[in-house]
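Archive transcription. Copying these from loose printouts into the bound notebook so they stop getting lost. Printout 1 of 2:
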Amino acid sequence: MNELLQFLQEPIAQRSLWACAVIGFSNGFMSALVVLRRSALQIGTLSCALLPGIALAILLFGLVQLSILLGAVLAGLMVGLGSLFVSRTSRMEHDTALSILHTTAFAVGYIILVQLGLQQKVDDWLFGNIMSMSNLDLTIAYATGAIAVLGVTVLRRPLILYLFDPRAAATMGIPARAFSYGIFALLILVLVSSLQAVGAFLTLGLLVAPAATVYLLTDRIGWMFWGGGLIGGLGSVAAFFLSFPLGWHLGATIILVLGVIFLTAYIFSPKYGLLSRRK
């Protein structure tokens, strides 16, 4: 206990704890879009598509943090929006186009980074390292989270209508195609902002589990956003305090805690839980 209190007095610990709370909340809030859109697997593939942008940015500009983040955003947008374009302009299903583009991009990025001798950095980008987040990383994560939460809050009603019935939304004058591209772009920005925290492989859990947990507890769609944010933020903070005494990887512990919360809701939810269905 004394060691934990001493650790909390360190600036790096305070920065990491704050990052857990803010990134956990913003990702949990945005997870409602992923669950309602039924696009969890698509987002999971997109998270791995960030790697080639990182690789190309390092190849062209070196280990400059801002160029790395911009490269990741560009790669995610190119793969995500590119797969939408391919599916809309051919007979190819979106999932198929996305799978081809993201695996190809990931392979290119991995080869470049290994050739550059950045194997350790690859591990950080794939699995996250909150303790190593720079001031720029934190600023981008906070700004992106604020923009995402504010944007979705302002446009929540037309967004929900579009997610449930795109055709009805289009007849009401809601730009369905713009919303489709916009949601993808916003989710990619959130993915990039949490890349350094939990990594490309684990960020899917942070962008799905919180709202999925709320979905098991209530029928009120509005609660999925704020409830998901609270679960994401509090779960990430709880993981911070759990990982230190156990010596566990913080990013992995965050996803583990959120997974345990989800399984608890799945089993004990009074309306949709496993036990309630056996009564």
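Printout 2 of 2:
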Amino acid sequence: MSQDKSVADRLLDDARAKCARAESPTLGKIAVIVGVLAVLVSPISILGWVFGAAAVGLGVAAVQRPVTAKQAKIAMALGAVAILVGVFFFTLNVAQG
């Protein structure tokens, strides 16, 4: 009666996989990319709000990982700027029209 992997080996593999996910910088990079995209489309107010909120949300999720904390803070700042620019252009359109 031999098993392919013992329970300890499976638990060790699961712990290594979880640690590798936590140390991955991918979420931080995605958050920054969405933040930059949010700032670029923010003059179109609704897109600025949507992408800005997405950047803030991804930033909040990424700030919990020590590897991506700096990128996450940048993404949250970019998202907030995009939302503010979107609000400015929305207000400007309402005032003109």
